[in-house]
## 1
Amino acid sequence: SKDKEKKMKEKPDLTQEVKDFTLECGADIVGVASIDRFDGAPDGFHPTDVMNSTKSVITFARKFIMGILDELAPGRQRLSYKHHMYAHKNTYNTFTGYDIARFLEKRGFKAFVIQPTTPYYAHEFRGVMSHRHAAIRAGLGVFGKNNLVLTREFGPRQRFCTVLTDAELVPDPLIEKDLCMDCNTCREGCPVQAWDPKSGIFYKPVCAHHQNWNRADQECKQPCG
């Protein structure tokens, strides 16, 4: 029908509009995944478990400030890392997610923002949906040996946020190339060796207990960076 043809023609235009708007809001990279790319997600952690009508998943990221990473040390530098790599960046990404959701709702679509970090299940060491898996399915990067997403632009140095929508957007191509340099520096430098040396499985509790996040004063005693 003519209505269907019009809708299909508008889809690429809407996708580009969403991406342009996301970058205008301050994000450094953005990608789109179709809902079929999440087949096999754990029960309860699929995008449709959060918003049943989800058809597309938008993931974006803000890059880290390299000067702070290079000078990571106890004291003021560590506090700057906590604020600018986590707290403030989480806030900026959440605001951007909110703006994207409003952008879509004004065009008649439904949207749901999954903000960074919270909400999460502390005993399982995972959130309601994985931003990292969403980023990979949106064509932004691949997993490295450090269990982080490596992007072409920034390696592992960014923080992600995700927006679900019932708008049918055009998905980005997946990255087929392995971006990991296979130098093994991340695993060799891990202070608690949180990986199984044979299988490569990453042990989240080991990592979390080492970092010793104090919820009373909101201070991480041993941030790895």
Note: The radius of gyration is 18 Å.
## 2
Amino acid sequence: MNFEHLVEINDPGNPLIEPLSRNQLWQGLVMRAENPELSVMGLDACVVLERSSGYLRRELRFGKLRIHDEVFLTHLQSVRYEVMASENFPASQLHMKIEEPAPEHLFLRFIYSSAMGEPEELVREHLKQAYIESDNDTVAVIRELGKLGKLGDYTPSPSQSPS
């Protein structure tokens, strides 16, 4: 199953949306990768098994269930999670990409893919809704961290790359 959607982070024309800089959004995505307990419901622990520049290999613990994944971080651009297949579920991938079609007008694109094949329509719609809710929760946590000053100060800057 494949699914993708966009979440608007900044709209310079909408003063009701508290802006985040590209760097703040990036710091929030890195924090999510290193401390998934902040936004993953039911997660008991995350153990980083290997760490190098732009890479994490982790074990996520949900009770007795163990999930192994790899996280690839491309500075200020994207975070890609690759979940290893197990007896409980197939391999899957989540790619989060920062997009900036105009200066300071940020979006976060979420791209899901799974080797599970195409589920029934009802299951597919439930999965899509769960992905959207989880991604909105991720953005809400990043916004809260930004308000608390844990992602650095908001500093408008030119786009880091074309999207």
Note: The chain has two helices and seven strands.
